[in-house]
Automatic annotation (TrEMBL):
Name of this chain's protein: Translation initiation factor 1A
SMART domains reported for this sequence: eIF1a (SM00652)
Gene name of the encoded protein: eif1a
GO MF terms held by the record: RNA binding; translation initiation factor activity
SUPFAM superfamilies: Nucleic acid-binding proteins
Highest classification ranks of the organism: Archaea, Candidatus Undinarchaeota, Candidatus Undinarchaeia, Candidatus Naiadarchaeales, Candidatus Naiadarchaeaceae
Source organism of the structure: Candidatus Naiadarchaeum limnaeum
């Protein structure tokens, strides 16, 4: 059996950087996919990019209660239940089910009653939001 060579911290960082930079060139078709660093090789934990609510843009997270086809009934984290419209450009590209966490934008007029759908969170993203403190376990009911 071959023993795996332990990389120094500097070598690990070089491999990791080459791996990240390689994706741009792979997308352009210049090179093949770079080799992944060895598992457990001291690579920092995975970074997850999640769209968070921006209060300046009147955005809030909510849970879908009912689906009305082109509209949703959403229980928002600020305590209001809003009827949210799904914009036409994304209406047929996304599937939203009751129980999904969504990001909505409140309307300027009737802000406590209506809003627009912006984004649906995946289960992994919801778990990450709970872990980071943006959502509470009590919000899941």
């Amino acid at each position: 059996m071959e023993q795996k060579k332990q990389l120094t911290e500097k070598e690990e960082q070089e491999v990791f950087d080459a791996y990240e930079e390689g994706f741009e060139e792979v997308a352009r078709g210049k090179i093949s996919t770079p080799a992944r660093p060895a598992a457990g090789g001291g690579i920092p934990e995975e970074f997850i990019r999640i769209r968070l609510p921006n209060s300046k843009n009147r955005e809030v997270i909510g849970v879908v209660l009912e689906d009305y086809g082109q509209k949703l009934l959403v229980k928002c984290m600020d305590g209001y239940t809003r009827t949210c419209r799904i914009p036409g450009k994304i209406r047929y590209k996304v599937y939203i089910n009751p129980g999904d966490f969504v990001l909505i934008q409140k309307w300027v007029v009737q802000s406590n009653e209506k809003g627009d759908y912006l984004y649906r969170y995946t289960r992994t993203q919801v778990n990450h939001l709970i872990k980071k403190g943006f959502l509470k376990e009590s919000d899941l009911q």
